């Protein structure tokens, strides 16, 4: 099958490297340099860990900075490498870039916030709690992550020039007849695990009176709502898959669909878990359970998967609509 030129790999790799690698590393290194510049105003050792009764761990300033840098750099490089290799779809790049910046800002805020509170102290044990710092860090990280995801460039259009393969399944439609396919994929075991974790942090917050932990509870609930409740739709504009919260979301237009088919996926063996996932073979998917799934191969080499009931009908309708669109508006 012939398609128009796909976006050059350097295009998505450039944005991934700038926003998903360079920017978070700059944030992490800058925070480390600023923290080190405070060394003459900080107690020795500094407070490095807080429990339910306040500070319960101390260490050197070098160690405190190193822990943040090592965690942040390792996470950033790992996710960047995955996106660099498999980030042909803009939705993947947006998620990875946003997550890397979110992590860098959160870790940097926690490092600087906890150290700033110790400036001028003789004994680090006299420092207060860290609830406000963590809350500020989560807020700043969320804003920064969302902004980076928004400014991550989309893929250039790459319309297919040939018809959908003759052996692909189709849904019989008369001339001028319209059809829409609609499903609501929802999580099973993954959703239950997530809400148990959220409930656990909520109980812990109440039991210990560490009310800042309720922010973690709220974040987990929002994450579960975003990752385990989706809407999938096939219509004359293509395939739309979005979270019930509205984000994340993806849209594959008809003119970029090479072929759709029903398939079977295995969550952990192929995708390593639940939610918005990147598979070992580079496929991107909304994978909420093992079983039936709709798989779409698009121009540019991307493959998108969503676990849904009645995947066969969705795939057949997509193939039919894609063929009809190319017959009506052929690409020269």
Automatic annotation (TrEMBL):
Residues spanning the membrane: 61-84, 96-115, 135-160, 188-206, 212-232
Location of the DUF1648 domain: 25-71
Keywords, ordered alphabetically: Membrane, Transmembrane, Transmembrane helix
Descriptive protein name: DUF1648 domain-containing protein
Species annotation: Sanguibacter gelidistatuariae
